[in-house]
């Protein structure tokens, strides 16, 4: 476990540096053939070689993935391979073709992630067509789920297109496809409060019979509604109440509860002073956010990876500093209505009503019976004497 954390931490610290010494250290840990350490090492190797298209690194990772018997190691390498092709567009096509035709479903899933990373934010029609084809044709549920989720990474620059692309998938008979559609909406429409996306997620949250689909819909709704108020998106209050209701309901399934707990954390992230976005304010791709969000989606297999979503947060507060990095005393005037930025009402703890003690009513028939028993007992004692 310590090595697992060490590998993941090293990968995050050296992300995108392409340092060969760090890569070799992680590769050494991967080759120890320990399932837990290997999973983190596989992800971290991809982080270090992020967008490098390093041929020897890709060869090492694909070859070891084809040999290894550990599913955890395969899962880590599936994400790591995808990171090496970040932003490489058509250059990644040969690797994508190799991975998507593999007989191992985990490597086919890696092909979906690689497609998502290579064409991230481009909205590339051919890439979307490939993902949609796999989403409806692959025999493995995990691959189909990954393909639909990957649509979110391609469409985040044009979030208004995402609901129309995944609307039919959101009504699929396959729960994994429905979950993927929810996550795609959450990723593509993050922080927008888009009404069409919320309209697709609402029935999933309320009525879906499969609990992990509800989990995904709850998380995705929070990603979309982060920093939205009732003025900008009227549905915020309803979803906040839904989270609280699912968390407090004793009869609710654990998976749905976990989704609601994460959703509550996401919608109030950073003391409500951060937003969630895969692109910067100028419209450029936010590399950290893309990496963090893809690793976050892996919480499906390993819950602690959910922490990586924090890489996608962007501060929205105004911090004024002078040339000495000291905070000057100043006042800012906002012409907007206070209700536009109003905080939601704090949660109130339900007060327990103390019930008054009611004196027990004594029935006359019971008193009569008690008297008879007492007289009979007294008579029996006299006879014994």
Automatic annotation (TrEMBL):
<keyword id="KW-0647">Proteasome</keyword>
<dbReference type="InterPro" id="IPR002015">
    <property type="entry name" value="Proteasome/cyclosome_rpt"/>
</dbReference>
<keyword id="KW-0677">Repeat</keyword>
<dbReference type="Pfam" id="PF01851">
    <property type="entry name" value="PC_rep"/>
</dbReference>
<dbReference type="GO" id="GO:0034515">
    <property type="term" value="C:proteasome storage granule"/>
</dbReference>
<feature type="compositionally biased region" description="Basic residues">
    <location>
        <begin position="368"/>
        <end position="377"/>
    </location>
</feature>
<dbReference type="GO" id="GO:0005634">
    <property type="term" value="C:nucleus"/>
</dbReference>
<dbReference type="InterPro" id="IPR016024">
    <property type="entry name" value="ARM-type_fold"/>
</dbReference>
<protein>
    <recommendedName>
        <fullName>26S proteasome regulatory subunit RPN2 C-terminal domain-containing protein</fullName>
    </recommendedName>
</protein>
<dbReference type="Pfam" id="PF13646">
    <property type="entry name" value="HEAT_2"/>
</dbReference>
<feature type="region of interest" description="Disordered">
    <location>
        <begin position="366"/>
        <end position="385"/>
    </location>
</feature>
<dbReference type="Pfam" id="PF18004">
    <property type="entry name" value="RPN2_C"/>
</dbReference>
<feature type="domain" description="26S proteasome regulatory subunit RPN2 C-terminal">
    <location>
        <begin position="316"/>
        <end position="380"/>
    </location>
</feature>
<dbReference type="GO" id="GO:0008540">
    <property type="term" value="C:proteasome regulatory particle, base subcomplex"/>
</dbReference>
<dbReference type="InterPro" id="IPR040623">
    <property type="entry name" value="RPN2_C"/>
</dbReference>
<dbReference type="InterPro" id="IPR011989">
    <property type="entry name" value="ARM-like"/>
</dbReference>
<dbReference type="GO" id="GO:0043161">
    <property type="term" value="P:proteasome-mediated ubiquitin-dependent protein catabolic process"/>
</dbReference>
